[in-house]
């Protein structure tokens, strides 16, 4: 009771803790002994750009405006169970006005506290409580995260560089062993969404550590114990192999420092000499090793090679992850690595929510993590306290948030990848590469003011624009600072993730497309130059045509507002397509496969179908991509132009591209005919990023690639061909084209500003296609 | 009795001490020593006919040693001879005699070395044979301080040899198991209400002597046990008192009864040796075995934690405390979390869900007694050993699991708990077996290695 009174007296920053609560539709609660998690789905009203295909009187090629669109967002909030009453009151107070208040008056509740708090929830919220099985919910939650969230799973390597090794996307989630370490331990073998079985467990779990730890040291909390353990040395308490043998026991391969008997030295009569730190350290190792052993033995017995650990004992805590990982590594002789989950604390809440969410069809959709609204992996309070000054001002250590957005359309792995399971999109892992991390974090922070200015300009007439822009800055800089302290907070840290975080933070504060006007103007300008450019190209043939097409692609690609150095050029307003061509590196380029590309075009049968992933609006798409596509079309190759589903920077979006292609068709018969005959199609990529993650492309696009038997993939721009996919292997020929517009990166790749990358690779499929014989 | 005559081991043992071998036998005295992390175990063979020993000085020294060892049941403050385990009328190295079983804390090794010097040990044999980690750790001390060379033998070889030797020579009484009572109301077995629970035996027949009903000068040995409240009847009553309010009596096997087990054809079987730590061996034949696993949560963990939690000082004291405690005051049960059984996964409400789980609460911590804490520690360690043993058995596809080691000494609670747990969780597929000489097999095997005795098959 005193706990609750204490909690009540705390002034909680509630708006931040339960975002979007007024639009909440459905709730689920997971109440653990120590932590409670509230899950709710809510309509999220966001702004989206809308593109009108009606040239207005001023001669714009199309009109843009903003509209409101409604999407579904899942919110998860984790807090200490002692706040549960306060939080229920707050939820109630904020829902009472909502027409959809807990629509059918049923709330799914799971977790050990489901019994204890059932009446409280029923009376406070006036709803019916459905208790859901804890382990079932954990499994549903775990399956859901593993299928939807890249880098959900990771291996933990203490003092490694980095400590976290994220596992990307697992194409074969099942089977696996889930070890949930709560007060006790359950081991569940999971073979599918519906087939799972508790194959074992042990009563020696987190409760044992906590209970015994308090008895032995008078510490008060779990985290106090971990802090003690952090500073302890178990060797004064445990009997090691060398204490018995005087050294290693070589014939059994037992090293001298292996623990032979936990607490074995504590039997000596002078027990007072033991430090509590050492005792707790010994206890932690004892329990971790035991759980690790049991998990390993069960995994081996059931032929399982993936073991995920979760539960209060783990809680993302470095020390417990370390001891568990160590134990699994020891028992399996390095064969199996312990896997942990970024959102491990939410498994039960997600599962409980899914159980009650039939009508949202949560499992039929694909979901993406909203980086803007999620807390990310946080180190426990005590260890990051010292860095607190670096963290954003709205940082609330007692509350952790996680948000998922429902994607409008399903996404899946690109069928042109050689091996989706080994594909990793990002070229540089900023977790490993400290120089690169420091450079990019600073680079992105330095460019925040420009982005803020542009955002304000894009909605200058709105009264709250400055306020929203300020919030954006605070949020995004906060994320960057968090990443500076803990680079692993949101999964793999890459240039892609930093770009995506920026876009998502902008969208969060209703700046869906700050570049929309700029994109129209640049495309208009480029369109005016198109006919002349096409006429010039038509005078060329053979390799000289191929060179000019390539140079067109490259020059177009210079027009990139995402690159700091380029932005300064473009801001002068006098930078032309011709200027861009002159800036390009002279041949031989940094990577120069133009001759083999040209030979391929001239001396082998034309490609059946090329999938071209487009980059920027304006000159890039119109003077670069369109002539290139026109040439392929003229050779009889079908072309799929793939554009982002959602806006980011000045990248052309699907909706814009549909209109732009029509405008081009008005000027160019080849395009016009191809469009009419469906030889040229525009499709959405399913992405909203300047980079390209080929694990998640739009289902329709993936189908088209297969149906049209695409045998060439073209990736254009730094984001899609350098920051990501530079080393991606494809099952068909690939062309990666980009101009290096960042001096630091160019230098790193052995080039300079405006160095050219023209990388043509033949299919890496080992089976030769018939046409190649 | 008729069975004994036709035992294959009988013929084997007689062949192994044939005259030819006797000539090559090493000199007296016959010792086997197993120096473990916590306890040192010593097996001493007392010859009844020592005629062949040459030299009066050696003879005198040997007599001194024999008199010292057999004339006492306690040595110094901590050395103890387990009189109830002695095996009489054994034939070793051409001699008939008695095997004595002695133990002392390894921390007292210096006192033992001093004793060996005082008894002029080095004037006799040139070597003493030892196994266990201490054989390596103390090798130099023996060499430098007593001029004794330690002959080191592999720990696991000795363990397995010792098991086979003692079982063969203590047939029908060495190996036993705990069985569900035929009638749940029955509290007696063979009309001996107390004897079935501790160190007595279902069979008193045969050539061996056991403590209960034995006419040996072992009263002091018994009283030693009595001093630590480990008389069987007392323990039984204490446990019985608990049954009244224990909702999970059915989960601890408290009412199970001791039965002899025929161990003549045991292969394959698992040996779980619970000393300070735990080693688990899979044994496929007398000579084919391997260490399959182990855990650091063993007897040393039980005693170490009990010392820290209750301030007790000895294993006997810790087990005594445990016998009077209630782990439900300390452990969280399934029903404490789920209000009853956890039906979805078929877990009964009275199973322990979290060992020491109640101790997260300050109030519960204040309510728990030393006895409760000791019991919870014992149950935690025991169940954990059982659980790991079970998985190893399943992995190796083995049905018989033999628990040995000094953790089981005067510890019927753990034995019954292990017996119950093996049966319950394996749906009756696994059988937990126990051996009377609990912790002495390594030392026995070591003695056999010294005598170069063949492996009894």
From TrEMBL, chain A:
Residue span, Damage-control phosphatase ARMT1-like metal-binding domain: 461-752
Single annotated GO MF: ATP binding
InterPro entries in alphabetical order: ARMT-1-like_metal-bd_sf, ARMT1-like_metal-bd, At2g17340_3_helix_bundle, ATPase_NBD, Type_II_PanK
Domain of life: Eukaryota
Reactions that this protein is recorded to catalyse: (R)-4'-phospho-S-sulfopantetheine + H2O = (R)-S-sulfopantetheine + phosphate
One Gene Ontology term, aspect cellular component: cytosol
Swiss-Prot/TrEMBL keywords: ATP-binding, Coenzyme A biosynthesis, Hydrolase, Manganese, Metal-binding, Nickel, Nitration, Nucleotide-binding
Biological processes per GO annotation: coenzyme A biosynthetic process
Subunit structure as annotated in this protein's UniProt entry: Homodimer. Interacts with PKM.
Role summary: Phosphatase which shows a preference for 4'-phosphopantetheine and its oxidatively damaged forms (sulfonate or S-sulfonate), providing strong indirect evidence that the phosphatase activity pre-empts damage in the coenzyme A (CoA) pathway. Hydrolyzing excess 4'-phosphopantetheine could constitute a directed overflow mechanism to prevent its oxidation to the S-sulfonate, sulfonate, or other forms. Hydrolyzing 4'-phosphopantetheine sulfonate or S-sulfonate would forestall their conversion to inactive forms of CoA and acyl carrier protein.
Record-given protein name: 4'-phosphopantetheine phosphatase
Organism this protein belongs to: Pomacea canaliculata (Golden apple snail)
From TrEMBL, chain B:
Pathway where it operates: Cofactor biosynthesis; coenzyme A biosynthesis; CoA from (R)-pantothenate: step 1/5
GO cellular component, one term: nucleus
Alphabetized UniProt keyword annotations: ATP-binding, Coenzyme A biosynthesis, Cytoplasm, Kinase, Nucleotide-binding, Transferase
GO molecular function: ATP binding; pantothenate kinase activity
Transmembrane segments: none
Compositional bias of kind Low complexity: 1-17
One record GO biological process: coenzyme A biosynthetic process
Enzyme Commission number, as recorded: 2.7.1.33
Pfam families: Fumble
InterPro entries named among the record's database cross-references: ATPase_NBD, Type_II_PanK
Location in the cell: Cytoplasm
Region (Disordered): 1-20, 186-226
Catalyzed reactions: (R)-pantothenate + ATP = (R)-4'-phosphopantothenate + ADP + H(+)
Enzyme class: transferase
Domain of life: Eukaryota
UniProt record similarity statement: Belongs to the type II pantothenate kinase family.
Protein name: pantothenate kinase
Organism of derivation: Pomacea canaliculata
Classification of source organism: Eukaryota, Metazoa, Spiralia, Lophotrochozoa, Mollusca
């Amino acid at each position: 009771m005193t706990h609750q009174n204490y909690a009540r007296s705390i002034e909680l920053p509630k708006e931040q803790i339960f975002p979007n609560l007024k639009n909440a539709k459905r709730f689920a609660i997971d109440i653990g002994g120590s932590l409670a998690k509230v899950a709710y789905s809510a309509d999220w009203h966001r702004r989206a750009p809308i593109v009108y295909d009606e040239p207005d009187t001023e001669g714009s090629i199309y009109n843009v405006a903003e509209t409101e669109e409604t999407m579904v967002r899942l919110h998860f909030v984790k807090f200490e169970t002692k706040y549960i009453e306060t939080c229920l009151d707050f939820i109630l107070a904020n829902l009472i006005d909502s027409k959809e208040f807990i629509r059918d008056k049923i709330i799914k509740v799971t977790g050990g506290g489901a019994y204890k708090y059932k009446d409280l929830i029923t009376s406070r919220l006036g709803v019916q409580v459905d208790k859901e099985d804890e382990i079932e919910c954990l499994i549903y939650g775990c399956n859901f995260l593993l299928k939807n969230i890249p880098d959900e799973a990771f291996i933990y390597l203490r003092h490694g560089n980095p400590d976290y090794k994220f596992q990307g996307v697992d194409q074969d989630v099942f089977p696996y062993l889930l070890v949930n370490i709560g007060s006790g331990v359950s081991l569940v073998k999971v073979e599918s969404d519906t087939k799972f079985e508790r194959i074992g467990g042990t009563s020696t779990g987190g409760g044992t550590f906590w209970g015994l730890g308090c008895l032995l040291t008078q510490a008060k909390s779990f985290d106090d114990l971990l802090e003690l353990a952090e500073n302890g040395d178990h060797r004064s308490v445990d009997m090691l192999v060398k204490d018995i043998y005087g050294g290693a026991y070589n014939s059994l391969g037992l090293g001298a420092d292996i623990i032979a008997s936990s607490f074995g030295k504590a039997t000596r009569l002078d027990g007072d000499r033991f430090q509590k730190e050492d005792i707790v350290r010994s206890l932690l190792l004892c329990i971790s090793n035991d759980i690790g052993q049991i998990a390993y033995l069960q995994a081996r017995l059931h032929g399982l090679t993936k073991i995920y650990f979760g539960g209060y004992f783990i809680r993302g805590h470095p020390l417990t992850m370390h001891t568990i990982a160590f134990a699994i590594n020891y028992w399996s002789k390095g064969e199996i690595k312990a896997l942990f989950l970024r959102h491990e604390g939410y498994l039960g809440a997600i599962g409980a929510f899914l159980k009650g969410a039939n009508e949202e069809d949560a499992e039929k959709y694909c979901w993406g993590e909203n980086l803007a609204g999620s807390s990310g992996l946080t180190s426990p309070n005590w260890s990051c306290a010292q860095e607190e000054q670096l963290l954003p001002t709205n940082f609330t250590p007692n509350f952790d948030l996680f948000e998922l957005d429902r994607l409008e359309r399903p996404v899946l792995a690109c069928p042109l990848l050689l091996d989706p399971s080994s594909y990793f999109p990002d070229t540089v892992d900023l977790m490993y590469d400290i120089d690169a991390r420091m450079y990019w974090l600073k680079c992105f922070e330095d460019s925040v003011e420009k982005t803020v200015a542009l955002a304000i300009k894009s909605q200058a007439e709105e009264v709250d624009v400055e306020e929203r822009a300020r919030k954006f800055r605070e949020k995004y800089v906060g994320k960057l600072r968090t990443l500076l302290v803990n680079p692993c907070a949101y999964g793999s840290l890459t240039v892609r993730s930093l770009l995506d975080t920026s876009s998502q933070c902008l969208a969060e504060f209703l700046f869906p497309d700050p570049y929309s006007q700029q994109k129209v103007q640049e495309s208009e300008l480029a369109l005016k130059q198109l006919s002349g450019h096409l006429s010039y190209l038509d005078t060329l043939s053979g390799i000289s045509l191929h060179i000019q097409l390539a140079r067109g692609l490259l020059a177009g690609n210079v027009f990139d507002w995402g690159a700091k150095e380029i932005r300064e050029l473009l801001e002068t307003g006098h930078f032309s397509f011709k200027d861009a061509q002159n800036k390009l590196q002279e041949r031989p380029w940094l990577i120069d496969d133009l001759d083999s590309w040209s030979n391929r075009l001239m001396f082998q049968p034309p490609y059946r179908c090329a999938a071209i992933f487009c980059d920027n609006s304006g000159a890039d798409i119109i003077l670069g991509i369109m002539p290139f596509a026109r040439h392929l079309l003229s050779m009889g190759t079908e072309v799929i132009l793939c554009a982002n589903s959602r806006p980011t920077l000045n990248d052309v979006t699907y909706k814009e591209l549909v209109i732009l292609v029509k405008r081009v068709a008005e000027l160019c018969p080849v395009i016009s005919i191809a469009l009419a005959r469906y030889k040229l199609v525009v499709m959405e990529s399913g992405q909203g990023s300047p980079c390209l993650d080929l694990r998640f492309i739009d289902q329709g696009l993936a189908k088209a690639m297969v149906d049209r038997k695409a045998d060439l993939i073209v990736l254009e721009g730094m984001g899609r061909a350098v920051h990501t996919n530079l080393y991606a292997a494809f099952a068909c020929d690939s062309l990666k084209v980009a101009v290096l517009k960042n001096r630091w990166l160019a230098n790193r790749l052995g080039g300079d500003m405006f160095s050219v990358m023209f990388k043509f690779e033949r299919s890496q499929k080992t089976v030769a296609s018939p046409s190649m014989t | 009795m008729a069975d004994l005559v036709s035992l294959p081991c009988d013929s084997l043992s007689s062949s192994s001490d044939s005259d030819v071998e006797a000539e090559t036998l090493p000199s007296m005295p016959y010792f086997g020593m197993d120096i473990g992390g916590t306890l040192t175990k010593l097996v001493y063979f007392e010859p009844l006919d020592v005629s062949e020993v040459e030299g009066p000085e050696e003879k005198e020294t040997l007599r001194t040693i024999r008199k010292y060892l057999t004339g006492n049941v306690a040595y110094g403050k901590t050395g103890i001879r387990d009189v109830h385990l002695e095996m009489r009328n054994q034939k070793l190295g051409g001699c008939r005699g008695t095997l004595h079983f002695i133990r002392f804390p390894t921390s007292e090794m210096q006192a033992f070395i001093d004793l060996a010097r005082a008894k002029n040990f080095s004037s006799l044999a040139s070597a003493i044979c030892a196994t266990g980690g201490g054989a390596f750790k103390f090798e130099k001390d023996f060499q430098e301080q007593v001029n004794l060379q330690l002959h080191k033998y592999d720990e696991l070889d000795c363990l397995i040899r010792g098991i086979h030797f003692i079982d063969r020579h203590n047939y029908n009484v060495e190996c036993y198991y705990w069985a569900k009572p035929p009638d749940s109301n029955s509290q007696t077995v063979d009309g001996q209400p107390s004897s079935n629970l501790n160190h007595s035996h279902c069979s008193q027949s045969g050539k061996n002597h056991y403590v209960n009903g034995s006419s040996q000068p072992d009263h002091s040995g018994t009283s030693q046990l009595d001093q630590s409240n480990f008389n069987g009847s007392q323990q039984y009553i204490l446990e019985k008192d608990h049954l009244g309010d224990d909702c999970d009596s059915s989960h601890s096997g408290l009412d199970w009864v001791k039965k002899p087990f025929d161990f003549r054809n045991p292969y394959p079987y698992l040996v779980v040796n619970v000393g300070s730590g735990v080693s688990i061996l899979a044994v496929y034949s007398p000579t084919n075995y391997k260490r399959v696993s182990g855990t650091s949560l063993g007897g040393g963990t039980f005693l170490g934690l009990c010392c820290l939690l209750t301030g007790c000082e000895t294993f006997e004291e810790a087990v005594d405390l445990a016998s009077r405690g209630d782990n439900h005051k300390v452990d969280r049960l399934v029903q404490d979390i789920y209000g009853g059984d956890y039906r979805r996964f078929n877990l009964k409400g009275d199973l322990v869900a979290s060992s020491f789980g109640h101790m997260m609460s300050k109030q519960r911590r204040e309510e728990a007694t030393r006895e409760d804490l000791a019991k919870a520690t014992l149950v935690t360690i025991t169940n954990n050993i059982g659980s790991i043993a079970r998985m190893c058995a399943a992995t190796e596809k083995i049905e018989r699991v033999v628990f040995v080691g000094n953790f089981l000494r005067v510890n019927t609670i753990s034995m019954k708990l292990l017996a119950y747990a093996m049966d319950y969780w394996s749906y009756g597929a696994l059988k937990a077996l126990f051996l009377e000489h609990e912790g002495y097999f390594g030392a026995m095997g070591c003695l056999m290695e010294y005598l170069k005795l063949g492996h009894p098959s």
